Amino acid sequence: MKIENAYTIVTSPGRNFVTLKIVTDEGVYGIGDATLNGREMAVVAYLDEHVVPALIGRDPQRIEDIWHYLYRGAYWRRGPVTMSAIAAVDLALWDIKAKLAGMPLYQLLGGKSRERVMTYAHCTGKDIDTCLEEVEAHVKLGYRAVRVQAGIPGIATIYGVAKREGERYEPADSELPAEHVWSTEKYLNHVPKLFAAVRERFGDDLHVLHDVHHRLTPIEAARLGKAVEPYHLFWLEDCVPAENQEGFRLIRQHTTTPLAVGEVFNSIHDYRELLENQWIDYIRTPLSHGGGITHMRRVADLAGLYHVRTGFHGPTDLSPVCLGAAVHFDTWVPNFGIQEHMSHTDETDAVFPHDYRFEEGHFIVGETPGHGVDIDEELAKQYPYKRASLPVNRLEDGTLWHW
Ligand SMILES: O=C(O)C(=O)C[C@H](O)[C@H](O)CO
Ligand SMILES: [Mg+2]
Fold first, then answer.
1. Which pLDDT score is estimated for 165?
2. For the whole model, what pTM was predicted?
3. Is 305 helix (H, G, I), strand (E, B) or coil?
4. Closest ligand 1 atom number to CA of residue 284
5. Considering only CA atoms, which residue is closest to atom 12 of ligand 1?
6. In this protein, which residues make up the domain named Mandelate racemase/muconate lactonizing enzyme C-terminal (predicted)?
7. Catalytic center residues
8. Is residue 373 part of a domain?
9. How many domains does the chain have?
10. Which ligand has an atom closest to residue 122 CA?
């Protein structure tokens, strides 16, 4: 069997998605998600110019060999563009292999470790009260876990909060980067009040998560972790930029609040110090940015040695292809923790028909051979690419800060 054709499909049904389709000479095809929010066309160029020509004629069943061919063979290793491109190939090849076997992907990985996959939703609001209303609405939808982000008095726009009531939160919301202003002190003074209010209204059972989006220093993160301990968060996410892994030693020494890291990581090497020192509790890299299933199962296995569980990234900027593959992975992986879920628009769901389904705060994996997600190429053509950028963040004095 040979790879006969491969091509990228860019579509924007509400937001941009990049999909790689790999077609074999026996007519079986697979698809992979190659979306890298705000840098979509860099991955398209990488795939079209450097990867696709080298795939034609190869045996699609040799997933491991193709992975190393693309990783070692490029000479230029790692990085989000390279690892997203490799991931797209890897996801498409696993899709093909599972279709050939006539099995849903989770069966090839080793079968079910659980019946359903717990997921968390995003709850945001301009202030604590509107945020609590959002939490209430999500609890009614059946969610057992929610990520809570509220506006901060004195800060005009804040990460994770929709611009207008009732709207979805979408970070890549302008053609060129919007500029946000940030105050660590205002944030640190306000956030514990939010979680006190959540616990007071919803009690102890609801899982509650929070994303700091890389905005603190280690000592500030330690202060926040301690301050929210009485509200026993499921996790505190990306509390500092994680290039300096040693910074987590300090945070860990000060707080028992569980820590999640890694949505911007793309390699097992990004995690090594964090895992070996047991400084974190959850790994976040999605399959589509971390070299696909072939690489992320190695990361998950390494994490498992240190009691660290998975909590894969799942915002709208990962396509249903990534989410569908993740639901298979989550159904199988022994050290599963939780799966992020931001609902896609109806337009997106129509472009990407899928068989995973949501039930009482969980995803249920489908039984279709492959990863269970397809793309309607004709419909995709109706939504042309629109440049969209993530914002930048500045301190009140104008200093460019972490976003
Ligand atoms: O979902 C999350 O936890 C995020 O932090 C979302 C990111 O801001 C988003 O994916 C950036 O593209
Ligand atoms: Mg995040």
1. 67
2. 0.97
3. helix
4. 3
5. 37
6. 128-258
7. 159, 213
8. no
9. 2
10. 1
